[in-house]
Specification:
Largest sheet of chain A: 5 strands, antiparallel
Strand content of chain B: 25-35%
Number of domains of chain B: 3
Shape of chain A: elongated
Number of strands of chain B: 18
Oligomer: heterodimer
Low-confidence stretches of chain B: 179-188
Number of helices of chain B: 5
Radius of gyration of chain A: 35 Å
Radius of gyration of chain B: 30 Å
Chain lengths: 663, 295
């Protein structure tokens, strides 16, 4: 038997397996470099060609060579095979290469199962609400592929595979119904299955490629792409009132080292820890932050954070640094005190670090600052003068500033005079240092969108911001936001309102609003599904009055509920698993079967081979039925079936509905 | 087992297939990963898959339960040939069934059942000794819907197949002497031309005597005849010097040959004697005697 020449049934099954594979690896392909995507798609293309042209499986040496090539490509792209992204990419490539030898039922099943595995690994990267649709599509296509494969397996040695009655809809409908039945049980398992309080082995620690968010260095112009990104950075639920927009400075990376071009993290700011903290008890702001994974170590909090979440350190410049990169949704409780005095006494080494500048940059700014210094004595006055300078001169707030070259601060201050927060913060900090005032750059987020329905604050990537802090004797480190001097609306109402142009073609106000409102669902999803764990389980049980839960209790409850659901499902099974066939769709036949069923209930033993009249005669005899009801129905059925008159259908329906055997 | 026989839950066994075990192992791996990384989406996927796996076990069982083995028929065969058992299976009105396989060891047939339908499958088993061949137990199984579980049921039929001795290949020619009336003729189909008669609707076109028809302006058909051969006596005693099985084998070959030539023949074996006769029933009677002969 030549399977490739058999035509549609064999191809259909192969096509589903290939389709299933493509669906499972699709999200992964989107985040893989193009070269690897090409490698992953080649075997898929070849296998498709093979099924249409009847090509033979690729010989062993070629497969080994292709595998070696793929691994080499992986190593050259990721540097190693370790790490989440590389490991999953490898799985994707190997799965795709498996297609080169997938010609048997066994291989087809391996491909489908591993496709489901890849589908699960996808959730290491994202657990967004839309992923539920992805799960459903993945499951359905796998079920259909497995059903077709099973059919091929059963019929393979016996010649052609007959199609199930009708079309794909038989399989699709069956798969859907399987899922409908499976869902309540799956949900029960999900809610009650005992969770581990701590992981048995390490969480993934490697950071991912090009994840959006703030980075560990700041070059003016570099967070430009963040302004285009409306994806959520974190969500905050305040206890009590939400502070004013102009108070919402979410502190992130703090930069001390300037090399003339970009700001870098300094060693000491990551390794010296805060000596004093605000008093958490009396902090005016108390809130809970639900932070999206950033692959970085920073946690965000309002100035000045008073609490250290678990496995998190507070550095001497009040950054919250997690001990591990944030690779999963992270929820923490925080309190902040904006009136806390940061570092009343600045140590000499830190003072040096805060006024240090590289030699040979920005001479024009240096001379301007020297001039100001000679005219103004107090530090505070110089700060004020700089802010006035930004406000009075023709500075513009724009997301598309001209590019700057070596003397970036000079060019910005005197030539282009346009930019966004990074430019202002960087220039201002350089100016202060030139005037001998300790200054540093702080990046983070500013503002947020208050969701009235969920009453929480949504902070998006596009709310990224940069500002300065100067150390002034007597008041410690003080926040100065030069951007506010140029575009006050940036701080009062948010980044979007301070722009004169749309950021991109599809940047409409209503769309942003819709996105912000939709975030409500994502947040609910995060709260109820993504972060569901031991705590939520015990909270759920406390609703039923059980204050204490243990695994045994969970398992008992789980088994009981599943038993209950199974009983319900068992009763609905005939309906749920009914497979529509062409035969069943004929209403007349259905009617006739209903009649036979009635006879069978009364004790008649029918035989599928019997003709209607014969059956009627036998049934009348067996059931000792007097009268001609049975014979009449059989006769009418035959008329409806074989003659062109159709008016009798109603009568037949009525007769069969009213029929009962009374003995 | 007495037929008709309906498969009920207590007759049906179920176990995971190799693929089922592998799939289960994969699910456990995924569940461990999901629990460890407290990745709830992965866990949800695993739970859904586990439930579907469980359901597929139930469906595999259900795919067999309620099938009815109506009857098993089997035509006698010669020793050395393949006995073909025809098994009639019927499905009631509850449900459609898919990919139901049947076979003695490996599945030999596979079928779908519509509602209220009846199908037959042919199971083949080599007939190696003459006499009664007890039909071995066979298996009805299904791996529907996903191939994760195989449910099966053993059927122990009481059906036997009559196995005639194998006809000797180089059997001596049929014995000539006999007592039958020679010369009797059976008209109709045969291979010698008997005469002409008027054409009747239904006569084969090949039989039309075109030349005669042309002469008489009427269609004439050729009538054929078969000479009824002389009756011969197939006697055990003629085959002295051979062992029992060889004698039976030669006698069988003679019966087959005589029947083929439409001779009338009688059979004599120790303890039995079949009077002269011909036709399918006569042949079956003779062959059965030979098949069941025991000295």
């Amino acid at each position: 038997m030549n399977s490739s020449s058999k035509g549609t049934p064999y191809q259909l099954e192969t096509l589903w397996v290939i389709g299933c594979l493509c669906i499972s690896v699709f999200p992964q392909l989107l985040s893989m470099p193009l070269s690897l995507v090409a490698i992953a798609l080649l075997p898929v293309g070849w296998r498709l060609l093979a099924s249409f042209r009847g090509l033979k499986p690729v010989p062993m040496p070629v497969r080994v060579f292709a595998t070696a090539l793929a691994i080499a490509a992986l190593v050259s792209v990721y540097g190693s095979l370790m790490g989440r992204r590389a490991a999953v990419s490898m799985l994707v490539l190997m799965l795709s290469l498996k297609l080169l030898e997938t010609f048997s039922t066994r291989d087809a099943r391996i491909v489908v199962s591993l496709g489901l595995f890849v589908c699960a690994t996808q959730f290491l990267f994202s657990q967004g609400i839309l992923m539920i649709i992805y799960i459903i599509i993945c499951l359905l296509s796998s079920l259909i592929a497995l059903m077709y494969t099973q059919r091929r397996e059963a019929y393979e040695d016996l010649g052609e595979v007959p199609r199930t009655s009708g079309s794909l809809f038989t399989e699709l409908g069956f798969g859907l119904r399987l899922m409908v039945i499976a869902f309540p049980i799956g949900l029960t398992l999900f809610l009650l299955f005992p969770r581990w309080s701590s992981p048995l082995w390490g969480l993934p620690e490697d950071t991912l490629d090009a994840r959006s968010g703030l980075s560990d260095s700041m070059t003016p112009g570099s967070i430009q792409s963040l302004f285009m990104d409306d994806s959520p950075a974190f969500r905050v639920k305040f206890e009590g009132d939400t502070p004013q927009n102009s108070e919402l400075y979410w502190r992130g990376p703090v930069f001390w080292d300037f090399d003339g071009r970009s700001w870098q993290i300094s060693y000491f700011s990551h390794n010296l820890f805060a000596e004093s903290k605000p008093d958490a008890e009396n902090a005016p702001f108390r809130y809970e932050v639900q932070m999206e994974p950033t692959e970085q170590r920073w946690l965000f909090a309002l100035d000045y954070p008073a609490l250290e979440p678990r496995k998190t350190d507070m550095t001497m410049d009040y950054q919250l640094l997690s001990q591990h990169p944030v690779t999963q949704l992270n929820t923490y409780v925080m309190a902040s005190d904006p009136d806390f005095m940061d570092t009343p006494e600045l140590e000499q080494t830190l003072l040096w670090a805060a006024i240090e500048l590289p030699e040979g940059f920005n001479p024009r700014t240096a001379s301007l600052m020297a001039e100001w210094r000679s005219e103004t004595k107090s530090d505070a006055a110089i700060v004020q003068r700089a802010l006035t300078y930004f406000n009075q001169e023709q500075f513009h707030y724009t997301l598309n500033p001209s590019l700057l070259s070596k003397h970036s601060v000079d060019e910005f201050l005197f030539d282009t005079q346009e930019g966004f927060c990074e430019h202002y913060a960087s220039a201002f900090t350089v100016m202060m240092r030139m005037a001998g005032i300790p200054a540093r750059v702080v990046t983070g987020y500013q503002g947020g969108w208050f969701n009235n329905i969920g009453s929480y604050l949504l902070v998006r990537q596009s709310d990224a911001h940069a500002w300065s802090e100067v150390w002034i004797s007597g008041s410690g480190w003080t926040r100065i936001d030069p951007t506010a001097a140029v575009a006050p609306s940036r701080v009062e109402r948010g980044a979007m309102d301070s722009l004169e142009q749309r950021r991109h073609m599809f940047d409409f106000e209503w769309m942003r609003q819709a996105k912000n409102t939709f975030d409500l669902f994502q947040r609910g999803w995060n709260n109820w599904v993504v972060t569901f764990g031991l705590d939520q389980q015990s909270r759920m049980f406390s609703m039923f009055g059980w204050s204490f839960i243990d695994s045994t209790r969970l398992v008992v409850a789980m088994v009981l509920i599943i038993l209950l659901i199974t009983v319900v499902i068992f009763m609905m099974m005939p309906w749920l698993l009914k497979v529509r066939s062409a035969q069943k769709q004929d209403p007349l036949l259905r009617l006739w079967y209903r009649f036979i069923r009635k006879l069978e209930k009364a004790g008649f033993v029918s035989n599928p081979a019997m003709a209607p009249m014969e059956l009627a005669a036998m049934a009348s005899g067996q059931l000792e039925y007097k009268g001609d009801g049975i014979a009449r129905i059989a006769e009418l059925y035959l008329i409806c079936r074989y003659s062109r008159e159709s008016g009798n259908r109603a009568e037949l329906t009525k007769l069969i509905n009213d029929f009962s055997v009374s003995r | 087992m007495v037929l008709p026989f309906e498969l009920e839950y207590r007759h049906i066994y179920i176990l995971p297939t190799k693929f089922g075990w592998g799939f289960g192992f994969m699910l456990i791996t995924m569940a461990l990963g999901g629990l460890n990384f407290s990745n709830n989406m992965a866990l949800m996927l695993v739970f859904l898959l586990a439930t579907i796996t469980q359901l597929s076990m139930f469906i595999a069982h259900r795919n067999l339960s309620g099938l009815k083995i109506d009857s098993i028929k089997c035509e006698p065969v010669f020793c050395g040939h393949i006995a073909e058992f025809r098994v009639y299976i019927s499905n009631g009105l509850e449900r459609n069934r898919f990919a139901v396989e049947a076979g003695f060891t490996d599945p030999e047939a596979c079928m779908d059942f519509e509602l209220n339908s009846r199908k037959s499958i042919q199971l083949r088993y080599p007939a190696l000794t003459r006499g009664w061949l007890q039909m071995p137990s066979f298996r009805i199984q299904t791996r529907f819907p996903l191939g994760l579980f195989r449910s099966w049921s053993w059927i122990f039929p009481q059906t036997r197949c009559l196995v005639y001795p194998s006809p000797a290949i180089n059997a001596p020619p049929l014995p000539k002497k006999g007592h039958g009336e020679a010369g009797a003729v059976s008209k109709g189909d045969g291979d010698q031309i008997h005469g002409l008669r008027e054409y009747q609707p239904g006569d084969s076109l090949h039989r039309i005597a075109w030349r005669a028809s042309a002469r008489h302006d009427k269609l004439y058909s050729v009538e054929m005849e078969t000479p009824r051969g002389k009756a011969c006596e197939l006697d055990w005693g003629l085959l002295g010097g051979n062992d029992v099985e060889t004698r039976l084998s030669i006698l069988t070959a003679w019966v087959v040959a005589a029947d083929h030539k439409q001779l009338s023949y009688s059979l004599v074996i120790p303890g039995h004697r079949v009077a002269s006769g011909s036709g399918a029933n006569h042949r079956a009677k003779c062959l059965e005697l030979l098949a069941l002969f025991s000295s």
